[in-house]
Amino acid sequence: MEGEKVASGASHADNIAPALLGGITLIRSYDPLDIKHISYPDDLWCAVIHPHLEIKTSESRKLIPQTVPMETALKQCGNLAGLIAGLSSGDYPLIGRSVTDLFAEPYRTGQLPDYMVLRESALEAGSVGCGLSGSGPSVFSLCRGEEMAINIGEVLKTHFTDRNIQSRIYISRISQAGCKTI
């Protein structure tokens, strides 16, 4: 978490918790630190595109308003609850309806060329849900199975290639194991 503080200006566990513990994690509290695993379907895969663009997390944080309207907060709470319920029950349509970030993504997506076109292309190609990974520039797409993840990866890659932006695609099943020394 201290590494995150150096990189972004804030000490948080949303990246390091799943990296160390594996799977999908929920940070329920920071005081005290309370991390919970969320169950998910066995055939959940992810395609992640990392365009060769620089977006500084510390700068990207400044784009997000310090307050949100109550209506937005309630909708986002519903999205989080829906995502957890969808993951736990394997309800892919519910997962898809719930992969929506109303707090940060609307303010950060302007840093990526034609982000909404990219997202819509992934969804039209069968992505379960798509979104900006943290502050970006990476974009993730949740997929049902390896074949879909590979296909969606190509859609994501083509988006940046068509805009003369180099990128790298990563395709993986959601790993139940955290990092380990080999």
Give the helix/strand layout.
Elements: H1 2-8, H2 16-21, E1 24-30, E2 33-38, E3 44-51, H3 57-61, H4 70-89, H5 92-98, H6 105-108, H7 115-124, E4 129-132, E5 139-144, H8 146-161, E6 167-173
Antiparallel strand pairs: 1-2, 3-5, 3-6, 4-5
Please state the overall shape, judged from the principal axes of the Cα atoms: globular
Largest sheet: 4 strands, antiparallel
Mean pLDDT: 91
Rg calc: 16 Å
Element pattern in H and E: HHEEEHHHHHEEHE
- Poorly predicted sequence stretches spanning 5 or more consecutive residues: none
Strand proportion, as a percent range, falls in 15-25%
**What structural category characterises the helix and strand content?**
alpha+beta
General description of the model:
The chain is α+β, with helices and mostly antiparallel strands and 182 residues long. It is 41% helix and 21% strand. The protein has eight helices and six strands, in the order ααβββαααααββαβ. The protein has helices at 2-8, 16-21, 57-61, 70-89, 92-98, 105-108, 115-124, 146-161, and strands at residues 24-30, 33-38, 44-51, 129-132, 139-144, 167-173. The strands form two sheets. It has a four-stranded antiparallel β-sheet with strand order 4-5-3-6. A hairpin with a 6-residue loop joins strand 4 and strand 5. It is globular, with a radius of gyration of 16 Å.
Descriptive key words:
globular, single chain, 4-stranded antiparallel β-sheet, two-stranded antiparallel sheet, 182 residues, 41% helix, alpha+beta
